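Dear Dr. V.,

Thank you for agreeing to look over these. As mentioned in my earlier message, I'm a first-year student in the group and I'm still getting used to reading structure tokens, so any feedback on how I've presented them would be very welcome. I ran two proteins. I've put each sequence directly above its structure. The first is here:
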Amino acid sequence: MEIIPVVPRGYCKGVVRAIEIAKKCAKEYPDKKITVLGMIVHNQYVVDALKELNIHTVEDKKKTRLELLDQIDEGVVIFTAHGISDQVKQKALEKGLICVDASCTDVIETQNLVKEKCKEKASVLYIGKKNHPEAEAVLSISPDVHLITQISDLPDDLSGNIFVTNQTTMSLLEIEKIIDEIVRRWPHAQIMREICNATSIRQKAVLNLKNLNVDLLIVVGDPSSNNSTKLKVLGTQSGIQDVLMIETVQDLTEQNIMNHQKIAVTSGASTPTALTAQVIDVLQHYSQTKEFVLPEKSPKIL
């Protein structure tokens, strides 16, 4: 049995930056209540680790960021790596909150690009995931921004200036199918692919596994993480025999890995390195000894 740790994997620069901003807040405002508006990154273990620093999180997938803000009435509010709308920022300031923005710089660039195109009176087709906070922030910019989750979402009555972009954590293959259809309908549409580099290279690394005869891909990530779930989907689409997504090594069983010859391990951009390292350690030990032994303790996340 061969174990292949996929490179790159794990934290991207935006996630590292967001976590460092949160930790800095804990030091700068030791006497104030600190609340993150939504999951700072889509990984529950990071959220739990921040709680140990007295940084709390309000999250409800059925509510927008604007609605969630009603639950925060004092202290510091941290806006997550996924970006935030101007309306939410304004409401937070009106509530007298200290605002700290941990938005990823790549996400901010996409938001600014959409704002610029809206000022030019363009119709914006934004390829993204419904109810995702990154998409929510972009859609709030203008009614001229249309969320496209699949080809059937494309409007029938567009004309004039058309601009196309996407959520930064989407699948390379997924957006290309939609873009191909957009170009067929509106050959003059301006296309700007905004999948962030960290997402792109992680996805390409998974797609390249088909050349290594990998028969099992393990993706370590939170199910709420779009970039993690896209890695799982790409693994299946690339023809890998078995693809498994787990949150931690505790989700792994001997039955999952026995009878496989080449096992690759990757993780989403919001997955702590320590969680993936435990998975790799267990697999390597099993490949050498045929003993399946899970660690007794969870690793330190922050």
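The second protein is here, in the same arrangement:
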Amino acid sequence: MISRSSIRDSLIQGLKHSPGVALLGPRQCGKTTLARQVAQEQGARIFDLENPEDAAALENPILALESLRGLVVLDEVQRKPELFPILRVLMDRPDLPAKFLLLGSASPFLVRGVTESLAGRVSFIDLQGFSLDEVGAGEQGKLWERGGFPRSFLATEESLSHAWRRDFIRSFVEKDFGSLGLGATPSSLGRLWQMTAHYHGQSLNASEIGRSLGESYKTIQRHLELLEGAFMIRMLRPWFENLGKRLVRSPKLYVRDSGLLHALLGIGSHDALLGHPKLGASWEGFALEQILWKLPRVDAWFWGTQGGAELDLFIQPGGRRIGFEFKVSDAPRMTKSLSIARDDLKLEELIVVKPTGAGYHLEDRIRVMSLKDATAYCGELTH
């Protein structure tokens, strides 16, 4: 069993200070396993809304929930959004006889009831698949290749991991996404998701994707927002500042889990990954997700100019201006783009992140780090 103690501790702390906690993340990322561990410790009542018996028990939610004491867990809560106004009433009781742990596979902007009914009552915790901190630096290559979904990462053979990911993609497109009632047909969503893998690490051009798929620009935008809300893709927004330069204004598109990216691209082995044209983009997305996992409360952007200068990740923790560039090379070198990004954005520090090895300085305020050291550095930024 791989320990997820940091998320567990955040969950326990959230329940101490709020009437409810929403643990959000993609399907199969480990939310239920973690919640059941906490529930067992606290003697909680669990309702799984994918279980017909539990769903039927909540047909009269006031009757089912009002008399409960202690911790109440509601799994896959996005399936029953009509619960949220009831939960607001229960969370507003003065003596707080029960607290609620809500597990969901859709972000708050998809499940509007979370933000509209439970604002100020629920603290949000995001959970992804396994992180580098959780599996250890010695498993970095495996984590990159297979992604962080527990069943993919822990599979006894690479072929079984790849097969699980292919089955997950098919199930998500044909069943899971439709259960959210969001209107995208499986065939159109499947084609779009496949295409996002080929645009991974690039600026979004929704019109171009729409022409390729025979869909309108607005349809592509809406379906991408749905994929983003279900934690399958990330659209990293550009940073704007009046610098007197023409800046890139379209978001960059990433498949959030590197294992799913590789499955969508048909990459089934380590050798295939090393020889694939998307190797650099795959590393960029993987390393970016590991950095952002260490900075859950920090807003993030990328930056780029029409002249070609760019920075993969820009953050401002505590008002400090920090940049990251991700290079799959073992020995990244100084480039003009790094110099422009450092100076134009007035960066306190620019970190070039490579897979492994010792770090070194390139120039003033620009240094190279391994991903392991870069994630440790990010941990220091938040303290």
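From my reading of the second output: Residues 159 and 268 are 7 Å apart (CA to CA). Residues 158-176 form the longest helix (19 residues). Does that match how you would interpret it?

Kind regards,
E.
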